[in-house]
Design goal:
This protein is an alpha/beta fold and 509 residues long. The protein has 2 domains: 215 residues, 3-Layer(aba) Sandwich (Rossmann fold), CATH 3.40.50.300; 214 residues, 2-Layer Sandwich (Nucleotidyltransferase, domain 5). The protein contains 19 helices and 17 strands. Strands 3-4-5-2-6-7-1-8 form an 8-stranded mixed β-sheet, sandwiched between helices. Strands 9, 10, 11, 12, 13, 14 and 15 form a 7-stranded mixed β-sheet that branches. A hairpin with a 5-residue loop joins strand 16 and strand 17. Helix 3 packs across helix 4, helix 9 packs antiparallel against helix 10 and helix 14 crosses helix 15.
Length: 509
């Protein structure tokens, strides 16, 4: 007889409490007594009248998320939710994280006499087998190429917050491999990701819309306008606080974050479960979005200044142009990537290069490496057909691009007239960054919501020298920032030229 959703949830709660044991800590070996908030999580997953395909549970660190995931694994491996000959997997971004969930599940099996009789543990392969049901569980990590050719009926995605950007190769590989099953189930158990653009955040936001009733989520987070160091605020994201989460230790971390501003972002993200960028981002999402208006219609007829950021052989190259009209600055970027391997590069960077290329936001050069001659020809055509006054460039790889300009027919005198070297150190970049930032904060820039430039903007991270000068830091960025480097150079050279004193020439007769 088929159980009602509520009966199914109650049955699963009972099985976990009957057969699972506390795997470590002061209560190790004791029978599990699920807290009410843990029972709510089980009801969220199993009492859904529509049937759950994807469940997301997100709370702060050290609230026994991984232990709870181990209970679910065992429930599907040898318990009431097991299906004959089913494959079960847990997915993590690193081997160490993958091992944590496996080891907790293995500890529970070893402590429980009932489970120990029916489940075989294979430590070296990170596998658990229930021979009676023919089910097998295996821990996978993103750094091991074993995710294809699988057919999972149940998946736990552990700490998906670690996936930067909107795509995760292991996540996609497992989620697209469930088609052979009638009722596959995936559970994501994780602290929130730092930004709105990361995979976990996108999945949470989609589940919250309610458009697909088979996608459910429970996110316990502290409101961003609440006092982050108040115990009441902290408890909102930490249901285990005062139970098996030591409140003294948590409040000690709160005091450290209060004293050290550099620790606050990490505290908000990991303890308060807020979406907070741990690094020092250049711009907020809101400020950048506010500058998303249309660029000037007569852009190419106006005097323009450019910033050229050259790449290595297979990275992003860009030219960003800016013009001023009625005290509003419009931005028009052009980006290039090699044509060969575009999809592979999209997966590696976890962004939609292939989609952007199809939609005209990204250009490609022939072959597997950036063709400077191709880019040079495009730039020369812009110079000849529009009103480009100056183009600032980073001297890295400049000698090769200069040679390409010459090969494409541009006179060296003209090159020296148009192109201006722009240093990438604090001395040159700090004033230009400050000027660009001021225009953006004053909402005096328009970028037309160009998606590749937006990616660069959200990845941009600022670093500061002892004197307080600032520049963007590629090494600390979350991804490509070439477009923002180009924008800052373009703005810097434009404002520099505006302030330049007029040149006077004397003709002697």
């Amino acid at each position: 007889m088929k159980l009602s959703p509520d009966e199914r949830a109650r049955r699963n709660i009972k099985w976990i409490e009957d057969y699972c044991r506390v795997p470590d800590g002061p209560r190790v070996g004791q029978k599990i007594k699920l807290r009410e908030w843990q029972k709510d999580w089980i009801r969220l997953i199993y009492a859904n009248p529509h049937g759950t395909r994807l469940a997301i549970i997100s709370v702060g660190r050290k609230n026994a998320k991984t232990t709870f995931a181990a209970f679910l694994l065992l429930l599907h491996l040898a318990g009431r939710e097991s299906k004959a000959n089913a494959q079960l997997y847990s997915a993590a971004q690193s081997k160490d994280q993958a091992a944590v969930l496996f080891e907790l599940a293995a500890k529970i099996v070893r402590i429980s006499a009932d489970l120990r009789r029916s489940i075989i543990i294979r430590d070296t392969r990170k596998e658990l087998l229930c021979q009676e049901r023919g089910t097998k569980y295996r821990a996978l990590s993103a750094d091991v190429a074993t995710s294809y050719g699988l057919s999972p009926a149940f998946i736990v995605h552990d700490e998906l917050r670690s996936v930067k950007g909107p795509k995760g190769e292991l996540f996609d590989a497992l989620e697209t491999a469930t088609g052979a099953h009638d009722e596959p189930l995936s559970v994501i158990i994780s602290t929130q990701a730092p930004t709105d653009h990361d995979l976990l955040s996108i999945l949470i936001d989609d589940a919250r819309t309610g458009k697909d009733p088979r996608r459910v989520c429970k996110v316990l987070e502290a409101p961003k306008d609440a006092d982050p160091f108040d115990e009441k605020t902290i408890r909102l994201a930490n249901p285990a606080m005062g139970d098996f989460l030591n409140p003294d230790e948590v409040m000690s971390q709160a005091e450290a974050a209060r004293r050290l501003p550099s620790a606050e972002a990490s505290f908000r993200n990991l303890i308060l479960n807020q979406r907070v960028e741990v690094s020092n981002p250049f711009l907020s999402k809101t400020v950048w979005r506010d500058c998303g208006g249309e660029i000037a219609e007569d852009f190419d007829k106006l005097p323009a200044f450019g910033g050229l950021d050259l790449s290595a052989s297979n990275d992003l190259t860009c030219l960003v142009r800016v013009v001023e009209k009625n005290k509003i600055w419009s931005i028009k970027p052009t980006f290039w990537l090699p044509e060969d391997g575009l999809r592979e590069r999209a997966r590696a960077d976890r962004v939609e290069y292939d989609v952007w290329w199809k939609n005209g936001f990204l250009q490609t050069t022939p072959g597997a490496a950036i063709e400077y001659d191709y880019v040079a020809k495009y730039v020369i055509n812009l110079i000849e057909t529009t009103k480009i006054k100056k183009i600032a460039f980073d001297r890295w790889n400049w000698q090769f691009f200069r040679a390409a300009l010459v090969r494409q027919g541009m006179p060296e005198k003209k090159i020296d007239e148009i192109f201006v070297e722009f240093g990438q150190g604090f001395k040159s970049m700090s004033p230009a960054l400050l000027q660009t930032e001021a225009l953006i904060l004053a909402r005096k820039m328009r970028h037309g919501n160009h998606p590749v430039l937006e990616m660069c903007a959200r990845n941009a991270v600022v670093t500061m020298d002892p004197a307080g000068s600032r520049k963007l830091d590629k090494a600390k960025a979350r991804g490509r920032i070439d477009g923002m480097i180009g924008l800052i150079m373009a703005t810097g050279i434009a404002l520099e030229q505006q302030k330049a004193p007029p040149e006077y020439k004397i003709m002697v007769m």
